[in-house]
Amino acid sequence: MLVKVAAGVILRNDSVFIALRQSNQHQGDLWEFPGGKCEPSEAVDAALVRELKEECGISVTEHSFFKTISHDYGDKQVELHFYKVTGFKDEPMGKEGQEVRWVTVSDLLYYEFPEANKVIVEALMAEVT
Ligand SMILES: Nc1nc2c([nH]c(=O)n2[C@@H]2O[C@H](COP(=O)(O)OP(=O)(O)OP(=O)(O)O)[C@@H](O)[C@H]2O)c(=O)[nH]1
Ligand SMILES: [Mg+2]
Fold first, then answer.
1. Which residues bind 8-oxo-dGTP (predicted)?
2. In testing the pocket of ligand 1, which one of 37, 72, 111, 117 has its CB within 8 Å of the most ligand atoms?
């Protein structure tokens, strides 16, 4: 099963907005960049805008493509399309009851992410050091 996903690295000043995946979700209890699966024939950036509205309550006004990561979890193959989100309306929150947090990019080191995210976290941290 190959799943195409759009995820947003929501940035403000030195910080990034992260969310804790619920225990019952795939890769549960790990931190993530909010986002979700693209619907059939939906453009990836349209999925990004839709998911960030649904999960975080923001309206994205400025985004740029960052990186695509393909990863095989064994039970699931994912193609993750990460975007930097640098402009948005309203304050992001956990609309689905998920725990959320603004953390400085250099503090990402202290959070546990799914395996596929390692490259993204390293790339973000490299930009600030
Ligand atoms: N949103 C998001 N998903 C990620 C990240 N890293 C990562 O491996 N994934 C994987 O990508 C897939 C995306 O799914 P999702 O669970 O967010 O999808 P969704 O919002 O449409 O949720 P749903 O299946 O509950 O409707 C999951 O298998 C998840 O484990 C990440 O940083 N953000
Ligand atoms: Mg999601």
1. 21, 26, 32-35, 117
2. 37
